[in-house]
Amino acid sequence: MGPTESVLVAMEFTIARRTHKCWHKEDHLVKSGMPRLTVRNGNKAHHYCPKCATVLLAQSAEHLEQLLTGANRLKDV
Prior knowledge:
Shape: elongated
Strand order of the largest sheet: 1-4-5
Number of domains: 1
Number of helices: 1
Low-confidence stretches: none
Helix content: 25-40%
Number of strands: 5
Oligomer: single chain
Strand content: 25-35%
Structural class: alpha+beta
Radius of gyration: 16 Å
Distance between the termini: 23 Å
């Protein structure tokens, strides 16, 4: 069996080099110099404004918590 890998996609906070639209809500602008959440999936990268990033990360944390609870129940079977 190989080494344990993360099931999470690569993500990090980066600084925008140019102004562009948020991937989640096009009316949200990520201005040059602003922090943004960069999510990489394969060769694609999507950028989220701080407001959408906060919501996305909170929803993802909740989902991971539910998965962990389910995994712990299975472990006890």
